[in-house]
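Comment thread on ticket #2218

A.B. wrote:
> Attaching the input chain for the structure job we discussed in standup.
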Amino acid sequence: MQPKKVLLLAGALGAALLLSGCATNRVVESDVQAFSTLSAAPANATYRFERLPSQQVQAQMQDRLEQAATAALERVGLRRDDAAARYSVQVSFNGQRQVSYDPWGPGWGPGWGPYWGGGYWRRGWGYYGGWGGPGFPDRVIYQHQVNLVLRDLSSGQVVYETHATSEDLQPANDAVLTVMLDAALHGFPAAPQGVRQVRVTLPPPP
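C.D. wrote:
> Ran it. Output below, let me know if you need it in another format.
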């Protein structure tokens, strides 16, 4: 298995994003895999969004996602034109909250650092239960995935497909959606084989 390439996106995009929470830089690391049949970026290409029936039900969330996708697609040379579209775009987001438990590690509150459990020292973050008990959440991880499919309307064929996944200690907000979509489209329309990692550092709020 080939090692993942790490790419950095920075600059004007990050400077324009505002995040709530603590005043520290938030790093979004996205694992990206794309598939393309396009040999070059189409000139003056236009598109329209298409929604699945399930996305029609969650219209408010889909509006936010498509707004972020519109900006990301514009940055790679694609322009939205519902009346004269050459391509259709389907974009989706999946988010899951995962909680892991440690039934053995003693401790009395949250924090990061070494703790004693199972007869040896370990490092971790979260809330820890007592010996032999059911335990408390070891840590909560939010798993995010954005998917984007570009289809040629004249032939009905998919010409570009891309997926970006990331894990974070915080749920995704609009800024995270934006940088994950930029990561998913990074290098469009080229699609290197395998999975590559795109890392973006978001600035703290002023």
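A.B. wrote:
> Thanks. Noting for the ticket: The radius of gyration is 20 Å.
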